[in-house]
Amino acid sequence: MALVPVPEALERLLADAQALPAENVALHEAFDRVLAEPLFALRTQPPFDASAMDGYAVRFADIATLPARLTVIGTAAAGRGFDGSVGNGQAVRIFTGAPVPQSVDTIVIQENVRVLAEGHIEVVEPTRQGRNIRLAGLDFTEGDRLLEAGRRLDAAALSLVASANYPSVRVVGRPLVAIVATGDELLPAGSTLGPGQIISSNAYGVAASARTVGAEVLDLGIAADRKESVAALVRKAVAAGANAIVTLGGASVGDLDLVHEALTGEGMTLDFWKIAMRPGKPFMFGRLGAIRCLGLPGNPVASLVCSELFLKPLLARLGGRDYRHDMRDAILGAAMPANEHRQDYVRAAAVQSDNKLVATPFGVQDSSMLRKLADANALIVREPFAEASEVGAACRLLMLR
Ligand SMILES: Nc1nc2c(c(=O)[nH]1)N[C@H]1C(S)=C(S)[C@@H](COP(=O)(O)OP(=O)(O)OC[C@H]3O[C@@H](n4cnc5c(N)ncnc54)[C@H](O)[C@@H]3O)O[C@H]1N2
Ligand code: MOO
Q1: Which residue range or ranges hold the MoaB/Mog domain (predicted)?
Q2: 314 contacts 387 by C-beta, under 8 angstroms
Q3: Which of 43, 119, 248, 272 would staple 202 via disulfide (CB 3.0–4.6 Å)?
Q4: For position 196, which CATH number holds?
């Protein structure tokens, strides 16, 4: 079977992926969710003309000539306004956020006032009419369109939604991704390892990739290298309502690579298997009803690079979020040999130098090496059949951090 080019693989993976149905969530639970529809203000903010400062509410005409002596006839605080009316030569002590009393038009900050005997002040600095008053609706007015569908609910957006008076909000459903590791040799982190055993590291990183784009993760643990063992965890994922099932390992051609068999046994229709990419060639994609099945290669770097390239965009799409890989132009800090037919993702260190981003590929690129991946802050993307490149040649980077 011909290897599927990376852009085509991504296109096929995303072909019919749409935002999941909307749901209501309480505002306390809504951080990092994505608005399913535009949001309109249910109220006006501020709902009244409000003082922006601590000071005195005055009639501007009274302070036209300075110093101006005024009599303080009451107090207006936030949540407790002054009900009376303010006449000539009078002022009201006022605090930030308090409703501005009737018939005053200016707030003088207290730093510009001398307090005389009890109940009397003298305004000593000039100001402008209307100063320090926030007019009703300065922030927004009832019915205003405040946020668009697709907006991620970050700190500012959440406070705005609350201020607009929504106790809950309609957001795109959150994709659930089930992770199934496969391999008799695997044990969870913290285990005492016997001969031939290693830690199932991939699940942790793949889960983190999924969470980066707002997905919920169900880690189903490790299946043994038996079709029935993999199938049992796949059934668990289906029963849990997963939107995507990610298998780790068992995607290649060895005798123990049972993932394809187990998934098709459960009803998966294969879309493609094996792509023109290094690392990540054995990547598999299929559909089990509406569930997307992604078979990630077992080699740790291949697993994570495939997560970055395919899993993240898919989950982002299902979760209704914009997601684009952070691609940048750079120059090479070391020569690179010609590439063959696979798109190559080469771990590299990228540093800014004299206004240029310089990417230096690591010498060893074995796809089992997590330490080198953690050291890398970028992947140099080498097109299939790219020619040998000298130091200083232009290159494209996929930034990792
Ligand atoms: N004859 C061929 N052999 C291989 C090919 C090939 O085309 N022809 N492809 C190679 C490539 S590329 C990769 S990548 C690996 C991927 O194979 P599998 O997906 O079948 O992975 P496994 O055989 O199960 O494991 C490979 C390697 O990764 C370790 N592993 C597996 N799962 C985990 C995990 N959850 N955490 C950490 N490490 C894991 C496993 O122990 C193996 O060392 O196949 C090549 N072979
Ligand atoms: O995907 Mo494999 O990692 O190319 O070695």
Answers
A1: 178-317
A2: no
A3: 248
A4: 3.40.980.10
Any ligand 1 atom below 6 A from CB of 99: no
Measured from the alpha carbon of residue 347, the closest ligand is 2
Considering Cα of 285, then 286, then 288, then 289, what sign does the dihedral take?
Answer: positive
Q: Are residues 118 and 149 in the same domain?
A: no
Pocket-testing residue among 252, 306, 309, 370, ligand 1, by greatest number of atoms within 8 A of Cβ? 252
* Together in a domain, 80 and 199: no
Position 65, amino acid = T
Q: How many domains does the chain contain in total?
A: 4
CA distance 333 to 82: 70
One domain, residues 199 and 272: yes
181 lines ligand 1 (CB under 6 A): yes
Structure tokens at 124: 């000593």
Ligand 1 centroid distance, CA of 132 (Å): 67
ipTM beyond cut 0.95: yes
Bigger pLDDT: 255 or 248?
248
* Residue bearing the CA closest to ligand 2, atom 2: 279
Cβ atoms of 332 and 389 closer than 8 Å: yes
CA distance 284 to 269: 11
> Domain of 149: which CATH number?
3.90.105.10
Q: Are residues 290 and 197 in the same domain?
A: yes
- CB of 342 closer than 6 A to ligand 2? no
Give the domain extent around 312: 4-20+174-318
- Domain identity same for 31 and 153: yes
Residues 284, 371 within the same domain = no
Q: Is 297 near ligand 2, meaning CB less than 6 Å away?
A: yes
DSSP 364: -
Which among 257, 299, 372 is the best mutation to test ligand 2's pocket, defined by most ligand atoms within 8 Å of the CB? Answer: 299
Query: Which CATH number covers residue 83?
Result: 2.170.190.11
| pLDDT tens figures, 170-206 | 999 999 999 999 999 999 999 999 999 999 999 999 9
